[in-house]
Specification:
Mean pLDDT: 93
Number of helices: 8
CATH class: Alpha Beta
Structural class: alpha/beta
Oligomer: single chain
Low-confidence stretches: 1-8
CATH superfamily: Vaccinia Virus protein VP39
Helix content: 25-40%
Order of helices and strands: HEHEHEHEHEHEHHE
Strand content: 15-25%
CATH architecture: 3-Layer(aba) Sandwich
Strand order of the largest sheet: 3-2-1-4-5-7-6
Distance between the termini: 31 Å
CATH topology: Rossmann fold
Shape: globular
Radius of gyration: 18 Å
């Protein structure tokens, strides 16, 4: 079955946000193959809003190509980064007040995307209670360990049917410039490890060998692509490979 990927994958390197192009196209294709008519895609950490505006555009492109409705939504404080909690928030590279938003200007650019402002501890559960379409892609760009953990608790612990069986995830702060020095003991990588340790049927794993799945495409974003596997999802084991029958008979 054709999916949104067909309209986006070629020339990924030409996109301002190739991680969004890849994540949205892949979750759209999965939804189409599972006959799920609509999905939600999320940006956690909107800052000035360039990413959310691009997510809005890519969602419309993918929806037109694959026939799955895609609703983009962004979550942010709006006032910039809060105070760090402790060393795990890596305040040697971030400071309170970074990445403030011009809310009025951003809202003037949004046509289909939804913007949720406030603490994710409150806005996340409230959004989930509103009954959105299943979540297919999440970009984690909250920088701090503490904010990432809060987002995971707020958004990743609903019943399985609130998600696609495999949710594409992008973690922005896993590579970075030389000064950042990310490790599994701080920041997003620590949040991922603790999430996996605390959940038996939900695991966040890297897409193994992604650069080989995308010949000619590379960059730091490739390292940040993960998948939330929901093993107890009722559709986790549904067959989704494009080929209906796969056989390799012995050559005569």
């Amino acid at each position: 079955m054709p999916g949104p990927a067909a309209g986006i994958h070629p020339g990924l390197e030409s996109f301002d946000f190739p991680q969004y192009a890849y994540g949205i196209s892949r979750c759209g294709a999965l939804a189409a193959r599972l006959a799920i008519p609509a999905i939600t895609v999320m940006e956690l950490g909107v800052a000035g809003g360039n990413g959310l505006v691009e997510m809005q555009r890519l969602s419309a492109t993918a929806a037109a190509a694959g026939g799955v409705r895609i609703m983009p939504v962004g979550f942010d404080l709006g006032s910039g980064m809060p105070e760090p909690v402790d060393y795990r928030d890596m305040s040697y590279i971030w400071r309170p007040g970074f990445f403030k938003m011009d809310e009025e200007l951003l809202r003037s650019r949004l046509t289909s995307a939804r913007l949720e402002l406030g603490d994710i501890v409150e806005t996340g559960p409230a959004f989930m209670r509103s009954g959105p379409a299943p979540i297919g892609f999440i970009s984690f760009d909250l920088d701090y360990y503490s904010s990432t953990v809060a987002a995971m608790v707020a958004l990743l612990e609903e019943t399985a049917d609130r998600y696609l069986p495999r949710v594409m995830c992008y973690f922005d702060d896993t590579v970075g410039p030389h000064e950042e020095l990310h490790s599994e003991f701080t920041g997003e990588l620590l949040a991922i490890r603790e999430f996996n340790d605390g959940h038996k049927t939900r695991k966040i794993g890297k897409i193994n060998g992604l650069r080989y799945k995308l010949p000619g495409v590379d960059g730091p974003w490739v390292e940040g692509m993960y998948v939330l596997h929901i093993f107890d999802h009722p559709k986790y084991n549904d067959y989704v490979y494009p080929a209906v029958d796969r056989q390799f008979p012995l050559d005569r």
